[in-house]
Design goal:
With 277 residues, this protein is of the alpha/beta class. It contains 11 helices and 5 strands. 47% of the residues lie in helices and 10% in strands. Strand 3, helix 9 and strand 4 form a beta-alpha-beta unit. It is extended, with a radius of gyration of 28 Å.
Length: 277
């Protein structure tokens, strides 16, 4: 006897419910198939209400687990948390030029998924660090590991690694994040050992076959970056790998800083002379 349309819809809804619960269980690394859930429902005499309650519990746990993961990713990223830089907080209306639309598309994280690096080059105060940090934060919110550090901090980290005689752990740590942000390239010079380790990081990230991107900011044009790294021509050529797959934004214009600056003018007057009687 064939089922009515109403009965078929009920069966489809229940089957879909088993599938949703199975997917949510997988988010906790628990493998349970829809068929196994159906067998459990029969064994425990679970009706649609009980199955709905089970889905609600898994939904709550999945949301809570997701929030905890995002919170952990943000803490480990070293991105500022007290006053975080976000894409929503960036004044895109101040950006002009033929490629301004490309800047607005950054929140889609296309570079991350295309395994292309990003660079923001331009004068101070124009929003380079804000955009880099906002991109990293968006990566965290989407479940991707991010690590942020200034070039001076990177140099110190690599110098300690080189001096330890076993730098592999530090290199691996810098290769692992899906999004690695190096801010203010050009604020310091890397010696030969640090340069070698930095380009080891670049090479290994270049070979990663998964969503990943490096984000670099600098006040200095890219063709002058060789001034900040120490090594022979072969080693410095490795810098090309950073920009082999990359989007470089050359940013120009006035500084964003001082937008809320309030300037007040006051004037002093001579003290009134007291008259002696």
């Amino acid at each position: 006897m064939s089922k009515t349309n109403s009965e078929a819809r009920v069966d489809a809804a229940v089957t879909a419910l088993y599938g949703r619960v199975s997917e949510m269980a997988a988010s906790f690394d628990v493998a349970v198939s829809p068929e196994e859930l159906a067998e459990l429902a029969v064994r425990l005499d679970m009706g649609r209400d009980e199955l709905g309650a089970l889905e609600a519990v898994f939904t709550y746990l999945a949301d809570k687990h997701h929030d905890q993961v995002i919170s952990t990713l943000l803490k480990l990223s070293r991105l500022p948390q007290k006053v975080p830089k976000t894409f929503e907080g960036f004044d895109f209306d101040r950006i002009r030029g033929r490629d301004a639309a490309a800047l607005r598309k950054l929140p889609a994280l296309a570079n991350l998924h295309a395994r292309k690096n990003l660079a923001f080059i331009g004068p101070g105060g124009i929003g380079k660090t804000h955009l880099a940090q906002a991109y990293g934060r968006e990566c965290c919110l989407n479940g991707y590991k991010t690590y942020y550090l200034k070039a001076t901090e990177l140099r110190s980290k690599l110098k300690r690694a080189a001096e330890s005689g076993n730098p592999s752990r530090t290199v691996a740590m810098l290769v692992k994040p899906s999004c690695l942000i190096v801010d203010e390239v050009g604020r310091c010079t890397f010696d030969h050992a640090c340069t070698e380790l930095f380009f080891d990081v670049i090479d290994r990230r270049y070979e990663k076959d998964c969503p990943n991107t490096m984000i670099l900011t600098s006040n200095t044009p890219v063709n002058n970056w060789d001034e900040f790294f120490t090594g022979d021509d072969t080693l410095l050529c490795a810098l090309d790998r950073v920009f082999d797959r990359a989007t470089v934004f050359i940013m120009k214009g006035a500084s964003f800083r001082g937008a809320e600056l309030e300037t007040l003018t006051v004037e002093s007057s001579p003290m009134a002379l007291k008259m002696n009687k």
